[in-house]
């Protein structure tokens, strides 16, 4: 309610008034107190500025209340509305309105046409209004879904940027860096924006053994280029003017479109510094252990607890009991906490002692919290850092759920398109032929899209490189071969943008279908000559296109093109491309002349 005027809805009301032949067409939204005119065509200036009426002047309220079409031939004689204020005040005499529903089926308002004289509405009027209303409903639903998707994207972006772990995304197959969150940018500085390689960024990276990485050997690039799965790999970063940075990097590919690789960067610089200080001063180590947020254990060669910091004792107290928190010092940890037996932590302890290399493992604590354990062996002892990562893992899971939900909503849009075809067929004179025609038009758009889509990429968007000649041949391909001498194409190269390609695809499909059914493509001796050129116009260059069929069996009198296909061509050329469309009917064929401003269609 109270939304500003929008061209998509104004176009629908203009089309309704033009097709049905009424002075007024409205898109109205109705709530418990008023009727708001989201779009209005033909309303006098004094009323148009208000854009709303009270319910006492609303015919559309009956559409909403009854969830059905309202058909009024003469409001002055109709007991349902003859006392409505709109009859005398707004001269509403003839009214035809259909419901506008949400995807859940709730009625928002009405799409209606109004006449100032009595009128008997035909079934075709009603069917036309239902078809146009379906387009308005689709636009409303699409805008709603777009708004929801935008909101969800903003929430996802905010969550990602608030995460304390750095996140980076790269293009699978090339390793080109696509995106990073705030933490990754803060960790890596300007170098994180550079995707051309380490040498160009001034950044140097070293593995846990002090050996330098090549650009291709970095964890994120290995995941992107070779589909490796990297878990908690230690990386040291050195940049000019900055202290060395120690990271634990995990990376793997994710199932997305396009395929991506994701890396998480955990800053362990402070932890590494603490480890070095531990070898120099037991007192400094003990102090660090007490102030860190991680739970810390030191185990002897028999896995008995030699030391635990305050965080660890507090964790045991909360998850188990105060008595155990005070008594487990000196006890065998696997015996004191039997839930750890057979877990990944016990296996990591064995690996650390066997290899004398740091290890990592996840532990599900007694209170169901997820702890990330980092194990550092030294002379038969084990120093274990336990970090609570429950919330971080929940964020990652929420991100995956969001991606699945977005995919689900996209599938719903396709399902809605399929339902639109079925609904249109049900309201047509010949459902099968109507459905077949609509599907054919969608296929024509798809063939045009095949020409458009190769020029549209995530980075550049659509560049307008669709050749008009290629578009014509793509539309004609299902009906004639490239070697068919009946068909002649003649014209200079013309590049179309996306709007030009999709709208001309509809027009060309209609003309080709008619030629196959009734015209040149249905007769072996007939000719089809298509020609185009750029000509001057009042407001700039125009594309002049002629569709000329000749050599057909002579007819006694020209046909009367009153079908939906002819109206679709006319509406597309006039309404979408602001051009002109005219036809001629020589005795042995058909000639269509189209003029369209180049500024609207040129690539």
TrEMBL record:
Gene3D superfamilies: 3.30.450.40, Histidine kinase-like ATPase, C-terminal domain, PAS domain. GO terms for molecular function: kinase activity. Pfam families: GAF, HWE_HK, PAS_8. The keyword Transferase applies. Its EC number is 2.7.13.3. Keywords: ATP-binding, Kinase, Nucleotide-binding, Phosphoprotein, Transferase. Residues 4-150 form the GAF domain. It catalyses: ATP + protein L-histidine = ADP + protein N-phospho-L-histidine. PANTHER family: ETHYLENE RESPONSE SENSOR PROTEIN, TWO-COMPONENT SYSTEM SENSOR PROTEIN. This is histidine kinase. It comes from Thioclava arctica.
């Amino acid at each position: 309610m109270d939304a500003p005027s929008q061209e998509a809805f104004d176009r629908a009301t203009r089309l309704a008034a033009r097709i049905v032949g009424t002075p007024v067409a409205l898109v109205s939204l109705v709530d418990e107190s008023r009727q708001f005119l989201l779009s209005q065509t033909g309303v006098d200036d004094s009323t148009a500025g208000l854009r709303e009426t009270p319910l006492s002047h609303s015919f559309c309220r009956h559409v909403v209340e009854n969830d059905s079409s309202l058909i009024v031939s003469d409001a002055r004689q109709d007991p349902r509305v003859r006392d409505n204020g709109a009859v005398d005040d707004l001269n509403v005499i003839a009214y035809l309105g259909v419901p506008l529903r949400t995807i859940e089926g709730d009625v928002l308002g009405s799409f209606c046409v109004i006449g100032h004289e009595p009128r008997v509405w035909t079934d075709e009027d009603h069917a036309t209004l239902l078809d146009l209303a379906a387009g308005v409903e689709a636009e409303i639903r699409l805008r709603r879904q777009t708004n929801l998707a935008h909101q969800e994207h903003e929430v996802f972006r905010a969550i990602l940027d608030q995460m304390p772990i750095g996140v980076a995304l790269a293009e699978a197959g090339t390793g080109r860096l696509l995106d990073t969150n705030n933490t990754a940018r803060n960790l890596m500085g300007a170098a994180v924006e550079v995707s051309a390689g380490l040498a160009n960024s001034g950044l140097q990276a070293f593995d846990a053994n002090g050996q330098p990485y090549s650009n291709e050997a970095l964890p994120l690039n290995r995941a992107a280029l070779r589909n490796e799965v990297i878990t908690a790999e230690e990386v040291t970063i050195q940049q000019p003017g900055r202290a060395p940075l120690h990271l634990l990097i995990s990376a793997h590919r994710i199932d997305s479109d396009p395929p991506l690789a994701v890396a998480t960067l955990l800053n362990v610089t402070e932890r590494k510094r603490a480890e070095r200080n531990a070898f120099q001063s037991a007192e400094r180590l003990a102090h660090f252990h007490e102030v860190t947020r991680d739970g810390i254990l030191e185990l002897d060669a028999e896995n008995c607890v030699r030391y635990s910091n305050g965080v660890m004792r507090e964790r045991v107290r909360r998850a188990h009991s105060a008595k155990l928190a005070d008594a487990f010092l000196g006890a065998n940890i696997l015996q004191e906490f039997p839930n750890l037996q057979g877990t990944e932590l016990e296996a990591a302890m064995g690996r650390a002692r066997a290899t004398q290399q740091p290890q990592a493992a996840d532990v599900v604590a007694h209170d169901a919290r997820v702890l990330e354990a980092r194990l550092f062996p030294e002379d038969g002892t084990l120093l274990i850092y336990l970090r609570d990562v429950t919330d971080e893992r929940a964020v990652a899971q929420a991100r995956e759920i969001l991606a699945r939900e977005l995919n689900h909503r996209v599938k719903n849009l396709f399902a809605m398109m399929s339902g639109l075809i079925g609904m249109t067929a049900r309201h047509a004179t010949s459902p099968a032929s109507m459905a077949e025609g609509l599907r054919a038009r969608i296929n024509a758009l798809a063939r045009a899209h095949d020409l458009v889509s190769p020029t549209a990429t995530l980075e550049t968007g659509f560049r307008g490189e669709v050749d008009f000649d290629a578009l014509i041949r793509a539309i004609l391909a299902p009906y004639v071969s490239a070697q068919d001498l009946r068909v002649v194409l003649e014209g200079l190269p013309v590049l179309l943008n996306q709007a030009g390609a999709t709208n001309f695809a509809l027009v060309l499909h209609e003309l080709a279908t008619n030629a196959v059914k009734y015209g040149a493509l249905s007769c072996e001796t007939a000719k089809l000559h298509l020609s185009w050129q750029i000509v001057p116009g009042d407001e700039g260059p125009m594309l002049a296109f002629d569709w000329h069929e000749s050599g057909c069996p002579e007819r006694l009198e020209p046909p009367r093109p009153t079908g939906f296909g002819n109206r679709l061509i006319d509406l597309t050329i006039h309404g979408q491309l602001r051009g002109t469309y005219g036809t001629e009917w020589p005795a042995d064929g058909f000639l269509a002349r189209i003029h369209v401003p180049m500024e609207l269609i040129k690539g």
